[in-house]
Amino acid sequence: MTQDDVGDRLLVFKTPYLLGSSPEIGDIVIIDSRVNRTRTLKDDIFESPLIAMVMDADHVEEVNWVKRVVGMPGDEIEVKDGQLYRNGQPVEESYIKEKMNSDFEAVTVPEDTIFVLGDNRNHSSDSRVIGPVPIENVLGKVVLRFYPFNRMNVF
After folding, report:
1. What kind and span of H or E run contains 79?
2. Distance CA 119, CA 139 (A)
3. What's the pTM?
4. Domains of the chain, start order
């Protein structure tokens, strides 16, 4: 098994969001992609890392996505000619892998939601697919990528 066969390993802080803080533009967050349902206490218990190891961990990884916050409530987000725009202004994104190969019509981010995109835009399921993400579906903020070692990074 090579480093390419294993996904990134991340250190995530949940505490700020549990205490009422909101994500900010540029944050890399873990979201529950099931945006059309309300999260419950049962979700929090059975999807905790310790419980997930004992139970169906693959299911948790399928619904928990790592994405970057690009829009806050009230922002207008669109992609034209492969360029992301927030409120009509182009967004500088040195972290994306390649220019986006598809456009996205303007959408205004509703209250109590955020708009997220993956950094690998041409191969990412994100708010372009599932729509704006309710704040309650933001599970934590990524603060460190510690594996693979050649991509270690503090956020």
Report:
1. strand 76-80
2. 18
3. 0.75
4. 3-71+113-154 (2.10.109)
